[in-house]
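batch_manifest entry 22 of 60
target: Dienelactone hydrolase family protein
source organism: Calothrix parietina FACHB-288
requested by: lab member K.T.
priority: normal
notes from requester: please return tokens only, no post-processing; we will run our own comparison against the previous entry in this batch. if the run fails, retry once and flag.
--- input ---
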Amino acid sequence: MSIQQISNSSLPYLFSPVADDANKPAPLVLFLHGARDRGNNLNILLKWGLPRFVDESSPLPYVFAAPQLPEGQTWVERESDVIALLDNLIASQPIDPSRVIISEFSLGTAGAWHIAASNPGRFAGLVAVSGRAPKTLEPTQLAALQEIPIQIFQGGKDEKLSIEDTEQVVTTLRQVKGQVDFTLLPDGDHFIADEVLGFG
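--- output ---
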């Protein structure tokens, strides 16, 4: 079963329901894409990374949704629409609201840090790939983020990101007993999403 394209919402999105034989209610993976995948064509998202993986692997034991931003917009600007989409999915699908993972790439990571920190208790985990971590974390952000497991993946040859900035965020979260795993792919550049998923 291929992934579905849903356009009748404030943000159009890719959607894959949970497999019929999976345990329900099921987890939800909410994916926020990077800057180059903005536009008005959901097929752009299917070319690589997690959306391509889900499209080629479905049905899966979790619900998957990947909204798309219009050109020139950011996830921070559309935070309320992302949360509205999350609420709609939880209301309409067999989703366990205590098992929502926010996963993202690049621009999506900046949005995910903000959205997860601004909506404590809504996410059970955060997976950041090639994303700019916030250089400083406010006490309220820190309190929210230390409650959820975070996985960070970054390429050692990524010219767009500072490894030092990411390491500082990891250190800060670990100092307050946050659950953070940081994986550095030494030969990886910015576009490591396929590599992280194991089919790059």
